[in-house]
Amino acid sequence: MSAPVSAITSVAFELYPAIDVRDGRVVRLHQGDYERETRYAPSPLELASGYADSGATWLHLVDLDAAREGGYTLRPLVRELVARTGLNVQTGGGVRSEDDVALILDAGARRVVVGSLAVREPDRVLRWIERFGADRITVALDARQDDSGAWRLPTAGWTQDSGVQLESLVRRFAAGGLLHLLCTDIARDGMLAGPNLALYRHLVDIAPELRVQASGGVRDIDDIQGAREAGCAGAVLGKALIEGRFALDEALRRMPPC
């Protein structure tokens, strides 16, 4: 089933270069495994500045230390990134409380990303959306398809089954006023196997009011175009971009706002 035309054309399509930070360095984890880490030479600021110079307007910033231990640590970096690059920063990792959200926004972030807590305590996150506004919160859901074909939402580093199914939670958040949904197919994360376009078409079909961000598996510009045609409102660009498999400025030229 193809995505409704309105889902493709009603909002701008955004590209989100991603920077994952651990111990102050740019890294990528293989399938979320902290023991399987690849480090990259540029500092977070150097890398973000390069993305801004290539024409990016957004940055997806992840605090990997906080994602495991709690307590977001990158507020000083957010302030510096915003001041020196002008990028709109979407960031998360270890967000546990309303105060966390307020402090991250006060540091200059445009949106706060909430992941595991959105699975465990959706009503709490819905209250944050009401307080801060739908444009200031992105819910990030990491999903794995089980043997029956159901999409489930594991937690605790993808090791525990939360008992929550993706579709039911997406509908709940959509009904509660969520605007921005980032969804990752765990099997595709960091694998350069292409995004799961069938999953994104399904999400757009069940909740067309959401602005879905594709995450995981993007290999090249054709994959980005595929996500757009599936009805997504944006794509997070991770391993393939940082390893130079395509040029960000070319991707931006080929994905102008709708």
The gyration radius over C-alpha positions equals 17 Å
Indicate the mean pLDDT.
91
What fraction, in percent, of the residue positions are helical? Answer: 25-40%
> Structural class of the secondary elements?
alpha/beta
The CATH architecture can be named as: Alpha-Beta Barrel
The biggest sheet, with number of strands, parallel, antiparallel or mixed sense and barrel status, is: 8 strands, parallel, barrel
Shape: globular
What fold name stands as the CATH topology? TIM Barrel
Distance between the termini: 21 Å
Order of helices and strands: HEEEHEHHEHEHHEEEHEHEHEHH
CATH homologous superfamily (4th level) name: Aldolase class I
Number of strands: 12
Segments where pLDDT lies below 50 for 5+ residues? 1-10
Helical element count? 12
For the record, what CATH class applies?
A: Alpha Beta
Total of domains? 1
Proportion of residues in β-strands: 25-35%
Strand order of the largest sheet: 1-4-5-6-7-10-11-12
Would you give an account of this structure?
The chain is an alpha/beta fold. Helix content is 38%, strand content 28%. It has one domain (13-254): Aldolase class I (TIM Barrel), CATH 3.20.20. It is built from 12 helices and 12 strands. It has an 8-stranded parallel barrel, surrounded by 6 helices. The longest helix has 11 residues, at 75-85.
